[in-house]
């Protein structure tokens, strides 16, 4: 039985402003199987932290349909604080031949 492919959505938040310039902040990555729930969760978290929720479901859906990714940078008074990116990922992709040709059969003598 072949494995069923499934699309999931990777939501990544990358901090652009650092409190300590010598410390690298790892991006926060979360995966969702439902785009609507990903956007709803994003609205809740942004609202709880006081950020305006300027990301709409239709704009994310449209960009994912056209380009397979969505980027948005949160900026206040010319300072970019963090960047949101949403990308499509495939679970259980179909296996390919990886560019390997079929082995030639040895000649019979």
TrEMBL record:
<dbReference type="InterPro" id="IPR029033">
    <property type="entry name" value="His_PPase_superfam"/>
</dbReference>
<protein>
    <submittedName>
        <fullName>Bisphosphoglycerate-dependent phosphoglycerate mutase</fullName>
    </submittedName>
</protein>
């Amino acid at each position: 039985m072949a494995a069923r492919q499934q699309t999931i959505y990777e939501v990544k938040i990358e901090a652009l402003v650092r409190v300590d310039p010598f410390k690298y902040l790892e991006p926060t990555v979360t995966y969702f199987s439902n785009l609507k729930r990903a956007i709803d969760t994003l609205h809740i978290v942004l609202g709880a932290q006081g950020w305006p929720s300027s990301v709409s479901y239709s704009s994310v859906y449209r960009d994912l349909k056209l380009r397979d990714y969505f980027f948005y940078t949160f900026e206040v008074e010319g300072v970019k604080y963090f960047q949101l990116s949403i990308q499509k990922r495939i679970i259980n992709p179909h296996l390919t031949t990886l560019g390997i040709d079929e082995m030639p059969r040895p000649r019979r003598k």
